[in-house]
TrEMBL record:
Keywords: Oxidoreductase. PANTHER family: CONSERVED EXPRESSED OXIDOREDUCTASE (EUROFUNG), CONSERVED EXPRESSED OXIDOREDUCTASE (EUROFUNG)-RELATED. Residues 7-123 form the Gfo/Idh/MocA-like oxidoreductase N-terminal domain. It holds the Pfam family GFO_IDH_MocA_C3. This is Gfo/Idh/MocA family oxidoreductase. InterPro entries: Gfo/Idh/MocA-like_OxRdtase_N, Gfo/Idh/MocA_oxidoreduct, GFO_IDH_MocA-like_dom, NAD(P)-bd_dom_sf. It comes from Devosia neptuniae. Residues 134-251 form the GFO/IDH/MocA-like oxidoreductase domain.
């Protein structure tokens, strides 16, 4: 059993408190932290959390309870200072993506976690779904040989789907595409080499920054990924993880994941198509803890066992996903110029 505190009880944090944390039996909550008294009162009144387990500051919580893990569910700009303080206080940390605003900050947190002997994990929840796990295993087993080209489409119409963050900088690349970029790395078991990206904001868009983008990403083993994403699409809605076609030497792996639309959840899907044959749907193995419960269960297991599983999204691993975000943003600012990941990682 892992004793945990949660830091950040706002809109998204409360979703963790109510819908995610109670579903992971290896987590024992001992404290809840938010500087906003109203947020603290909400968990007390709506969820029946005892007052003695609620705190208005992280340092106050550290003095009041003994815990192994801090679950950090705050706004992005608060990630770096809060995670840093959690690590300094001796907590292992699970933090929402992106886990820092810059590569320099992210590297500092990774180094601090290592120096203190603590686990730092980024909640890349899209990894914990049946289809991307199966795709990663098929690619690893060379089911159809080497991957030549990966095509990914993400389509949503934010104005009609309850989107809220119209003034967020880089709403596509930084807030949404980071999931897809992270899945690219996981499924291909490869690291990006360079990227070219263009973004734009269409007429009559409520977004303050660019919600549409196209990118070409080159990976170290030579695989090219063609990515198209839009928060302003009038086309058919895709699952949250996008629609993927992975073109290999002897066939295609076609899949989609996190098929939630208008409150309805659909299953992950994966099909195999041998060259010159019809696609055949493949049954997917169930995942015990999916999505955000998957990330929480994973770090609890690492803390309890000391063993790090395959595809674990540690802070160190996630540096490369964050670098992809920064590289595509940089490329878009340069009019689509190729940007080397090495430049971003310096």
């Amino acid at each position: 059993m892992v004793k945990a505190i949660q830091v950040g009880l706002g809109h998204w944090g409360f979703s963790w408190t109510k819908e995610v944390i109670p579903k992971v039996p290896s987590i024992h909550m001992v404290g809840y932290v938010d500087s906003n008294p109203d947020a603290v009162k909400r968990v007390q009144s709506e969820l029946g959390i005892e007052e003695k387990r609620c705190f208005l500051s992280l340092d106050e919580a550290a003095k009041g309870v003994e815990a192994d893990l801090a679950i950090c569910t705050l706004r992005t700009e608060a990630h770096y200072p809060v995670v840093k303080r959690c690590l300094e206080l001796g907590f292992n940390v699970l933090v929402e993506k992106p886990f820092a605003s810059t590569i320099a900050q992210a590297k500092e947190l990774v180094d601090l976690a290592k120096a203190n002997g603590r686990v730092l994990m980024v909640s890349q929840n899209y990894r914990f779904q049946p289809a991307p796990i199966a795709a990663a295993e098929l690619i690893g087993a060379q089911k159809f040989g080497p991957v030549n080209l990966v095509s990914i489409d993400f389509r949503r119409h934010a104005p009609s789907q309850g989107y809220r963050y119209w003034d967020m900088p880089d709403p596509l690349l930084a807030d949404m595409s980071i999931h897809h970029f992270d899945l690219m790395r996981m499924v291909l078991s490869d690291e990006p080499k360079r990227v070219s990206c263009r973004t734009w904001n269409p007429a009559a868009s409520p977004f303050g920054h660019h919600p549409i983008g196209v990118a070409t990403l080159e990976f170290e083993k030579g695989t090219i990924v063609s990515y198209r994403g839009s928060w302003m699409s009038s086309g058919p809605v895709t699952p949250w993880a996008g629609e993927w076609t992975m073109d290999c030497s002897e066939g295609e792996i076609i899949w989609s994941s996190r098929d939630h639309f208008m409150g309805k959840a659909g299953p992950d899907r994966l099909s195999l198509r041998e060259r010159d044959k019809e696609a055949v749907a493949v049954p997917l193995a169930p995942v015990e803890f999916t999505d955000r419960t998957g990330t929480l269960a994973a770090i609890a297991k690492v803390i309890e066992s000391g063993s790090v599983p395959a595809r674990f999204s540690s802070g160190e691993d996630n540096l490369h996903s964050l670098a992809l975000v920064q590289a595509t943003i940089t490329s878009a600012a340069r009019g689509g110029e190729w940007v080397d990941i090495a430049e971003i990682m310096q």
